[in-house]
Amino acid sequence: MSGALWLSTRTPEEYAERLVIPNDVRLANLQKVEVKRELFLEEAETKPEWSFTLTEVEANSWLASDEFHENVAWTLPPEISNPRVQLKDNEVVLAFQVSHEDFKGVVTAPLKVESISDDQVQIRIERVTTGLLPLSWQQILEGTLAEQRESLPVGITWNEEETDDRGTLITVDLDQFAELNWQLDKLELGPGYVYVKGSRDAEANQKKRPQSPTPVSASSVPDPEPGNAAPGG
């Protein structure tokens, strides 16, 4: 095996740490996710504003759950499996296993939120790696995601040509939010968590929208919960 091929098929340590989640940790965090989901749905239906905080281990526990595999995984390209996330300041590092033509390995993509508006979120992918080597994100988008675009729960578009040296800009359309009279007001990414805030008041549509995510302050970071430092988060 050549050095380049060996590097491209290596599993990044950060992904390996999050891939296997102890069963007791996964089940405990799935219960937390369910409680948060019920509270979120109640707030979204009865209050003018709603918010939702998800920790990294909760997100990865859900990505490893039967619910994800039964209700969401089928919308992904068949070449993609076992997604995991690492949450940092203003960045989500998405990693997943890929079996595509002659390549089998782990793809890692750091996602940075560029801006949010009433009906869309713009995310920039500056680089993508397979194992420890760079790979064009266009190869994944055009070879897999493009074929599944119509089945995805949100609309996704991206710059078709790599003319921007800052990477690929992906736009996620939130048409379903508009149909529910919801709008996204705030999106914060911090070490180990993501915080989302929105509203359903029609008058809120006139508010000035932030052009970039607000940096996470130390006071807004949720206190660590038992189990959230365990493998998988």
Q: Which features characterize this protein?
A:
alpha+beta; 7 helices; 11 strands; disordered C terminus; 233 residues
Task: Describe this protein's structure.
With 233 residues, the chain is an alpha+beta fold. It is built from seven helices and eleven strands. The chain has helices at 3-9, 13-19, 23-46, 56-63, 66-71, 137-143, 175-179; strands spanning 49-55, 80-88, 91-100, 103-116, 120-125, 129-130, 133-134, 155-158, 168-173, 183-190, 193-199. Strands 2, 3, 4, 5, 6, 7, 8 and 9 form an eight-stranded antiparallel β-sheet that branches. Helix 3 crosses helix 4 (56-63). Residues 204-221 and 226-231 have low confidence and may be disordered.
Topology:
Elements lengths: L2 H7 L3 H7 L3 H24 L2 E7 H8 L2 H6 L8 E9 L2 E10 L2 E14 L3 E6 L3 E2 L2 E2 L2 H7 L11 E4 L9 E6 L1 H5 L3 E8 L2 E7 L34
Antiparallel strand pairs: 1-11, 2-3, 3-4, 4-5, 4-6, 5-9, 6-7, 8-9, 10-11
Count the domains.
Answer: 1
- Rg for CA atoms: 18 Å
Tell me, what's the shape?
Answer: globular
Query: How many strands, what sense, and barrel or not for the largest sheet?
Result: 8 strands, antiparallel
Order of helices and strands: HHHEHHEEEEEEHEEHEE
Low-confidence stretches: 204-221, 226-231
Question: What percent of the residues sit in helical stretches (DSSP H or I)?
Answer: 25-40%
By helix and strand content, what is the structural category?
alpha+beta
Number of helices: 7
Q: How widely separated are the two ends?
A: 33 Å
Total count of strands: 11
Beta-strand level of the residues, as a percent range? Answer: 25-35%
Mean pLDDT metric:
75
